[in-house]
């Protein structure tokens, strides 16, 4: 009989015998090899999304055009399918041309797709990593967006209507007295609204405030352009000392200037004013934001709200010249509500009586989106989607242009046709509906926090312009081409020949009277 001790002994003898050891080692190696093979097979079955063949060194950097990139990306979508992969200056890009994919990745999977690519020049130094638009996903972004939400949620936005109506009287007056400065008039209107809401006072009449606001804005947009600063392409340049990095000193100087300008506006605003900035400071016991973050929240409203709003109104003017029947139909609708004599200017109280004009506003957002290429989101972790592999740190581009010019959802997409929103239950019921049915305000946790305000600003501007003016082509309308537009984060029409005329002398007098009255109100 074998004792227990013998069994243990025989195991140990067996264990150290060379043949079984060799056997065990071989089986281990075979298992590892099989595992590797399995992993490899798996990684092969999860492939990257399709796209054009990249250059071995530069990827697609020199294939992607800088002008009207969204149209090129739309073309890739038609060729390779709605999800396209590219690489640009060392970054992985995932282009989404279909809203369903954007809603899944940027919406339902937003925990992974809500960051922004970090920018050393504009983000780290110029903004001290506190500028909302550039913040990566995390606690700081959540706090800043919560503060924004407190100020810009639909219920609160209702209380800004008086300011929006006042500022739109200025727009009417500017179009009456300076019809050739359409672009500047729309920018003054857009910036004026956000300035008034943020700091409780209107832009100076001599355009000094406007020029400084637009100057900061243009500079910041340029600083964020891909490739604008070498350090954002080669981050190791950030390790160089200050005396070899003049760009760093320049970025820090811009930061100082921005802080000083914001502080000046804050001092001029005062605590008692009922405006965005004053409320932010008053409610800060809830948000616990430092002074720089507070300054950037108010500043972000300008950066993101001025160009987008102005561009939308410029596209509206072009649409009215190219599609005069839609203008006539909207004028008839407005006249039926406020009278055709030109004595009563329509306002927010008429919203529910103006479904066609409201659909016309939505169609402007769809026809020529102000941010056609979307704002890129940035992913934090590896993911798989529809059998495709999406690496961590991929820049995800929601191509709003392609989504809003999709034949299936929007037949004849290049045609400006407000009736497409007048179908059955789609007739607008409240101001919230302005942001629905199109994708012009982005997606998921980074969706535009100013959309309710921005959409209503555009609406009141459009409704009142339709009420008061006719828009005519200086030459034949065929000379006006919506494809002639700027390229960048926002897209607006290049200068086009146009004439803006009051509909009648009574309309003109009503505008002048309203302007005199509102100037008194402003000074009061
Ligand atoms: C017609 C007007 C406007 C349009 C078309 C528009 C469009 C957009 C779009 C497409 C985005 C990017 C969303 C994304 O990343 O998915 C965005 C972001 C943003 N918008 Fe607007 N916007 C408008 C007006 C405004 C206004 C009036 C404000 C402020 C008062 C504003 C504040 C912002 C801010 C702060 C962001 C950045 C949000 C973030 O990064 O988390 N926008 N907007």
UniProtKB/TrEMBL annotation:
Q: Which GO terms describe its cellular component?
A: membrane
Q: One GO molecular function term?
A: iron ion binding
Keywords linked to the UniProt accession = Heme, Iron, Membrane, Metal-binding, Monooxygenase, Oxidoreductase, Transmembrane, Transmembrane helix
Which cofactors?
heme
Q: Where primarily located?
A: membrane
Q: Where in the cell is it found?
A: Membrane
Which Pfam families does the annotation name?
p450
Cross-referenced PROSITE patterns: CYTOCHROME_P450
Is Transmembrane one of the keywords?
Answer: yes
Where are the membrane-spanning stretches?
A: 20-39
UniProt-listed Gene3D superfamilies: Cytochrome P450 (1.10.630.10)
Q: Which InterPro entries match?
A: Cyt_P450, Cyt_P450_CS, Cyt_P450_E_grp-I, Cyt_P450_sf, Cytochrome_P450_fung
Q: Which pathway does it take part in?
A: Secondary metabolite biosynthesis
Q: Where does heme bind?
A: 448
Superkingdom assignment: Eukaryota
For this chain, the family text in UniProt reads: Belongs to the cytochrome P450 family.
Q: What is this protein called?
A: Cytochrome P450
**Native source species:** Neolentinus lepideus HHB14362 ss-1
Its ancestry begins with: Eukaryota, Fungi, Dikarya, Basidiomycota, Agaricomycotina
